[in-house]
glucan endo-1,3-beta-D-glucosidase (Mycena belliarum), 401 residues
Amino acid sequence: MSAYNNTQYQAVDNYSNVLQQNKAQNRRSKWIVIGSILGVVALIAVGVGVGVSVSKHNKSSPKSAAVSNSGSNSSGVVPQTDPNDPSTFVKNPALKQSFYGLAYTPYGSQLPTCNNSLADVIVDIQLLSQLTKRIRLYGADCNQSALVLEAIKQTKVDMKVFLGNYPVPSDGGVAYVRQRDLIKAALQTYGADHVAGVTVGNEFILNYLGDNGGTSQDPNSAVGNAGAALLLSNITDTISMLSGMGLNIPVGNADAGSYFNTQILSAVKYGMANVHPWFAQTTIQDAAGWTADFFATTNVAAANALSNKPTMYIAETGWPTKSSSVAAESNGAALASVPNLQIFLDTFVCQANQNGTGYFFFEYFDEQWKDVQFGGVEGWWGLFNADRTLKKVTIPDCAAP
Ligand SMILES: *[C@@H]1O[C@H](CO)[C@@H](O)[C@H](O)[C@H]1NC(C)=O
Ligand SMILES: *[C@@H]1O[C@H](CO)[C@@H](O)[C@H](O)[C@H]1NC(C)=O
Ligand SMILES: *[C@@H]1O[C@H](CO)[C@@H](O)[C@H](O)[C@H]1NC(C)=O
Ligand SMILES: *[C@@H]1O[C@H](CO)[C@@H](O)[C@H](O)[C@H]1NC(C)=O
Ligand SMILES: *[C@@H]1O[C@H](CO)[C@@H](O)[C@H](O)[C@H]1NC(C)=O
C-alpha cells in the first residue's frame, strides 16, 4: 500500500507517475502473497486489468468531483491545555503505547494536490505517539518529512520516524531525486535525532516485475536483477548523501514479502516486508499465526542467510474493517469487519512484541484517496477513521519495546 507524493513537477510527467503508482498499487494487493497461493496467472491478469481500468478512469476524469472531505479538518480532535502549545495535548486513556510501529501517510501528501498541513500532522503525531514510538513514511513528496519532524519537535514526543523515498522505476530518476532533496533539506533542518532510517524503494521490485516481467515473478530473475540495478543506484546514492552529511542513519528498502531481491537486501541495513494475511485469504483466526510464520520463514530466513544480515521488519500488516463494494468484502476466507480487526489486534500485537518482531501496523487512519482511486477495502485499514476518531476497537494493553 502506498503513498503518493510529490512537489515541484511538470504536470505531464507527474501525472503519469501517479498513474504508474496507481497501477502498481493494485498489483501489489494481488501479488503480495504469490508463492503461497494458487491461481497466480489469473491473479496477475486481474491485477493488470484493474490497473488499466483505474488508469483509464483517471484519464477520463482527472478530478472526480464530489469527494467528501473528511480527514482534513483535525481541529479540536485532540484537546490541548494550552491551545498554542502542541506539547500540552491531553492523552486519551483508550490509547496505549502497545505497537512496535505504525504505518503513516499524512493526509494530502499526494500529487498533484499536496494539500497536507502542519496542523493536521501535529494532531496525527499527538495520536500516534500515544500508540507507538515509531512510525514509517512511504515517500517524501509534499514536504512530509519536514512536517513530521516539525510536529515531533513541537509535540516533544518520544518518536522516531523511518523516512521514505518512493522512486518510480520508469521516470529516469525524477521522483527519486526530488524526494532525496526533500529528505536532505529536512535532515539539514531537523538533524537525525528522531530519524530511525531512510527507506529507499517501496514495492519497487514488485512494480518493476509487473511492468517488465512478463510471466516471471521471481525477484531474482534477470528482470528482477535489472530492476534491482536501478534501485541499487538510488540506494547507493542515498548512502553517500547521508555519509556526506556526516549522518549515521541506516538505509533500508521496503517491498512485498515475496519480492526481496537478494542484491538489494545485501546492500541495505534493513528490509521492510509487507506481510498481509488478508491477501493470503486466511481466516481471521489464522491471520496472526500466518503472518508470523510467513515473515519468519520467508523474510527473516532470507536475511539471515546473507553476510550483512539486514534487520527485517514487517512493513505492513493489518486488517480492513469494511469494503466499498460488496464483492470485495471478503477475500477467500478473509472477511473485512471491525470485529475482525479487533481479533487481529488481540492475536497479533502483544504476541509479536513478545516474540521480538519489529512491525508497522497498517495503518494509522482510513485514507479516502485510496478509496476513491481503488475502491474495495483499500481505503479502510485504519485504526482511526478518516476524521481521526478511533474505530470501535479496544487497543491491546502491553508495552511495546
Ligand atoms: C485536498 O485535495 C483533495 C484532492 O484534490 C480534495 O479532494 C480535498 O478536498 C482537499 N482537501 C482539503 C482540506 O483541501
Ligand atoms: C474544523 O472543525 C472545527 C470543530 O469541529 C470547526 O469549528 C471548524 O470550523 C472547522 N474548520 C473548517 C475549516 O472546516
Ligand atoms: C516544509 O515544512 C517545514 C515544517 O513545517 C517548513 O518549515 C518548511 O517551510 C516547509 N517547506 C516547504 C517547501 O513547504
Ligand atoms: C534512481 O533510480 C532511477 C530508476 O528508478 C534511475 O533512473 C535513476 O538513475 C536513479 N538515480 C540515482 C541518482 O541513482
Ligand atoms: C509468536 O511466537 C509463537 C511461537 O513461535 C508463534 O506460535 C506465534 O505465531 C508468534 N506470534 C506472533 C504474532 O508473532
About this structure: The CA atoms of residues 98 and 400 lie 5 Å apart. Residues 222-244 form the longest helix (23 residues). The first strand starts at residue 102 and ends at 103.
